[in-house]
Amino acid sequence: QVNAELWSAYLYLSMSVDAEAKGFKGFGNWFYVQFREEQDHARILMNYVLSRGGRVTLAPIAEVKTTWNNQLEAFEDTLTHERKVTAMINNLYDLAIEEKDHATSSMLKWFIDEQVEEEENASTIIESLRQVEGNKLGLYMIDKELAARTYAQAAPLAGKE
């Protein structure tokens, strides 16, 4: 899961630079904040494994897509990806329950709640993009709105880094 979170970070960084290269600074900002959040998610998992006496072994990060035809496609890929991550987290949670590992179940609950938010955010932006499809002013306004997104360290890391 650590590797999956780091791959997610890399994907969002790729989306960020692609958006900015196309003049969408707000979209680039949104994806860059997402990149930083995914790094936090990996660190939360690493901290947890280490706190339980485990060992973290980092694997190579697989290649990611580097260009999207438009911002709607990027966000559709985002939603597809977040749904995949949700399934991975749910599988870990199911395994923790099966193993009667209550501590891990408790830790994973935060990720389950986070994934609900991740999917909702992507879905909301997709709907906004569909509503303004073909309208450059509408796309401009969404870009400006996404430029306002700021980075906030993930709750389980607050005060620990």
Summarize the helices and strands and which ones pair or pack.
Layout: H1 2-21, H2 25-51, H3 71-98, H4 102-131, H5 136-147
Description:
- This protein is an all-alpha fold.
- Helix content is 73%, strand content 0%.
- The protein is built from five helices and no strands.
- It has helices spanning 2-21, 25-51, 71-98, 102-131, 136-147.
- Helix 1 (2-21) runs antiparallel to helix 2, helix 1 (2-21) packs antiparallel against helix 3 (71-98) and helix 2 (25-51) runs parallel beside helix 5 (136-147).
- It is elongated.
- The chain starts with a helix and ends in a 14-residue tail after the last helix.
- The relative contact order is 0.16.
- The mean pLDDT is 95.
Keywords:
161 residues; mainly alpha; elongated
Tell me the Rg in angstroms.
17 Å
Q: What structural class do the secondary elements suggest? A: mainly alpha
Globally, the shape reads elongated
Point out poorly predicted stretches.
none
Roughly what fraction of the amino acids lie in strands?
A: under 5%
Share of residues in helices: over 70%
Number of extended strands: 0
| Main β sheet profile | none
* Annotation field: number of helices: 5
In sequence order, what are the helices and strands, one letter per element?
A: HHHHH
Mean pLDDT: 95
End-to-end separation: 20 Å
**Oligomeric category:** single chain
Task: Give a short summary of the structure.
The protein is 73% helix and 0% strand.
